[in-house]
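Cross-posted from the bioinformatics board.
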Amino acid sequence: MFSWGYFLQQSMNGIILGCIYALLALGMTVVYGILRLINFAHGSLITVGAFFVYFIFFRAGLSLPASVFLVLGFGGLMGLVLDTIAYRKLRGGPEVALLITSLGFYTFVENFMKMVVSPQPYAFKTPPYLSIMYKTQFLTFRSIDVFIIVSSIIIMLIFHLFVKKSKMGIAMRAVAENLEIARLMGIEVNRVISLTFVLGSAIAAFTGFLWGAKYGQISYDMGFLTGVKAFVAVVVGGVGSIPGAMLGGFVLGLAEILSIAFLPTRFAEYRDGIVFAILIVVLLLRPAGIMGVKEEVRV
Amino acid sequence: MKRPELAFVWGGILLFLGVFLASQFLNRYLIHILVLIGIYSIATVSLNLTNGYAGLFSLGHAAFMAIGAYASTLLTFPLPLREAYELPKLPWFLGGPDFVWPFFPALCMGGALASFAALLIGAPVLRLRGHYLSVASLGFVVIVTTLAKTMKGITRGPMGISAIPLYTNIYWTYLWLFITVYVIWRIVHSRFGRAIMALREDETAAQVLGVYPMKYKLFSFVVGAFFAGVAGGLYAHFTKAIRPLEFSFFLTFQIVVMLILGGMGTTAGPIVGVVSLLTLRYALKPLEEHLKIYGMIELIYAVLLIVVMLWKPEGIVGRSPGKKKRPTRVLEGGGSHG
């Protein structure tokens, strides 16, 4: 039953899911690089972003570009709030305190959303000009697929350039390299960390919109597994490496979709299990990830 | 006999006197709550070994409880009902098709299987930095619930197993709680305990002193998983029905909140946390049902967790660590490379 058309089609689905994971992994890897924090709260931004777009775009009827900019701003604001009221206070303490707090934030947002929007999933209708079907000889796709791939690539490029070239990006890398020395060099560490959260969260909220537009359904708990899988992507690609995070996202997305597509149907339910099995295999064989360098422990 | 052991003997006698009085005079609803407090305490006390004393942050307790719950259920499930529930008969190495396990060995078996799973997960993951354990153990919860949903021939899939014989009573629960507290206490106050706490405080320094991290971390993880498995078995035989859904991330989260609220790395902390949060839950339950805002209690748990982390990270019982007398190590990098 193997055919190249089917393979191509499924690979495209995998790449789209990979785009979503990669975008989320970007935000998680920079935060992990600086604070050694697995930011579970990152997942909640996906949910919040998706519902934000749902309400301002479908209910309030704003235009799509306006919604996109607003959701980016809203996500960034959430990131800033989170960092200011919670994470900043915990810096310098035990690393695990940050982790626990982010877990608390995730659960808070999830249950808050559950109360506000009801536990039922919402139908997220893709706007008509994003659901135009194109048929070619090999592939069938909708304009939303193109939109996701193009916007993801644009965001990744901008992010990459920002981190490599801009002053703030260089400061970010310096802080990730060594926080204390960066502070001694006159870098305002707190501002850099806040900015990291703002950027990551803005991207995560936007990803929530992409998720809703692509899969047509949003719910209060959509962010949890997606967020954790994004961290799996970070680990697979190599912790602390931005290209690694993107690569990890694509690898994970492709692996997830292709394993469902080519395994017998009864394995479809193993989807989430497969992702974490990949994680454990990667940790076993190559703990540093595909592109990561082995983490040195300095005394 | 040394003094602390004597304290345990007296404590045990008092505990069982209390349990006896409770079982005689309290109504069924209160006993129900007391048993739940006992089961959650077993889980939380065992999580304390891993998360509190060893300083690893495992989020996998729900998975170990699920393993214990399913294992002991399958071992003790009555023969006449097996056919009706389409559950498999036991293979020869577990006693053959006509054999039904008694409760106590079945619980131990559930715990042992949970330990074995912890060994499989811990061996690759514990070699790495602590944080990987959080994600990998969380992933393990997802894997276990997925398997419980899909292995329909054994677990009956998403609808779960019901009509489990009711074996758990207040005596069994508090007997196991007593065992758990005693075993963990003994471990913590032994060479092993000092080693895992040394690793928590400063892994490199402990290594220099000859403590091999992998061995001790894995040991505490495996022991913690054993009691989680037992708690799962008790839970299954108490609620009489289990579904994969119940052993989700939220169960882990509750146990983590209980542990942190009570105080990680203290003997009394986990139990204080369980008692206060479960009391709160049952006190608020009528309100939640009256107002029809389901999820309110979860919301309160999350808020409590954040509040505790921000203002009293040592929990109710724990003492504030005060100022550390460690020289400031400027070049260390603000804990980012520690």
